[in-house]
Design goal:
Helices cover 48% and strands 8% of the residues. The chain is mainly α and 311 residues long. A three-stranded antiparallel beta sheet has the order 5-6-7, with no helix packed on it. It has a two-stranded antiparallel sheet with strand order 1-2. A hairpin with a 2-residue loop joins strand 6 and strand 7. Helix 7 packs across helix 9 and helix 8 packs across helix 9. The protein is elongated. The N and C termini lie far apart (78 Å). The relative contact order is 0.09.
Length: 311
């Protein structure tokens, strides 16, 4: 990765193109330009057969300059740094500050490219790219440009284990608006890598993150909930709120301990996912519903049968 700073003091992380991908893009461009130049040369020779030799040489030089020099410059200017070869290889020419190139940048790159690519058969360009830390040839150095990769392979998103079923919906009233994005990112990274950490180190890290989240929310973490499980439950609550805000639908529950969203059950912790220092998930506490009060009790008299509380 290469860090570029824009005029607004914003740091951009770009991936400079390597020599093999740049060489392949240049080769594709040269093949296309060579075919066009061959067709144009044949047309010029046929159409200028009746002219003298000096006129034929002048037209041939003009065709060479327009096709081999002017065409690449025009294509890079109109496409903002993406020629046919670069488009096929997922590359793009940008300025040193990360902005799109203009005509003067393409003109300098094309003029210097005639010497370091066409005349020297690319030897100078290859040496300059190997010496440069960001793989720039002489045309890029003079023009103040950089060739970067637009299509960067994206890795698979890390799996965030869900909380135990007995914690689902427990933090529905928690205020999460004051938790910054950096802290959310740290919590997510911990949850995705907690199985790879030492138990003591993971427990200490979970406690520190849980205390930070609790301080931001203004509500202390429950003492009966392990810090890792608390973090997973808070992250799930944030995801549910974001989904509700985006789709405008509240979660649907089909029973205790089985939260659903849009009618589809949310998966719980799969096999092999355990939270540090937690042997097993706590079972949901049974709730005993109180029987409706009798009218005689409401009027202040004792019930005629059953358990009578002491006076």
């Amino acid at each position: 990765m290469s860090e570029l700073v824009t005029g607004e003091a914003v740091a951009l992380e770009l991936r400079p193109a390597k020599l093999p991908s740049r060489a392949l893009a240049v080769l594709l461009d040269l093949v296309v330009v060579g075919l066009v130049y061959t067709v144009v040369t044949i047309v010029v020779v046929v159409s200028t057969a009746s002219l003298d030799e000096a006129a034929q040489v002048a037209l041939s030089i003009a065709a060479f300059i327009l096709v081999l020099v002017g065409a690449p410059i025009a294509v890079e200017t109109l496409s903002h740094g993406r020629s046919l070869g670069k488009l096929a290889c997922g590359l793009r020419v940008v300025r040193d500050d990360g902005g799109p190139i203009r005509f003067r940048h393409a003109l300098v790159r094309g003029a210097v490219g005639v010497v370091e690519i066409l005349i020297t058969f690319g030897v100078v360009a290859c040496i300059a790219s190997l010496v440069s830390a960001r793989g720039r040839r002489l045309g890029d150095v003079v023009a103040g440009t950089l060739v970067v990769r637009e299509r960067v392979p994206v890795g698979r998103a890390a799996f965030v284990p869900p909380p135990p079923p007995w914690l689902s919906g427990r933090f529905a009233e928690l205020d999460l608006s004051a938790v910054p994005d950096g802290l959310w990112l740290a919590v997510r990274q911990y949850l995705t890598r907690m199985q790879q950490l030492d138990p003591q180190v993971g427990w200490a890290m979970a406690e520190r993150l849980a205390s930070d989240v609790a301080a931001r929310t203004g509500t202390p973490a429950p003492p009966d909930v392990p810090p890792a499980a608390y973090l997973a439950a808070v992250v799930q609550e944030r995801q549910v709120r974001e989904a509700r805000r985006a789709f405008g639908s509240a979660p649907v529950s089909s029973g205790p301990g089985t939260p659903q969203f849009f009618g589809a059950p949310v998966p719980h912790s799969p096999a092999g996912i355990t939270y540090p220092a937690v042997a097993e998930a706590a079972a949901p506490v049974p709730v005993v519903e109180a029987a409706p009060q009798d009218r005689s009790e409401a009027s202040g008299r004792r019930p005629s049968g059953g358990f009578a509380p002491p006076a």
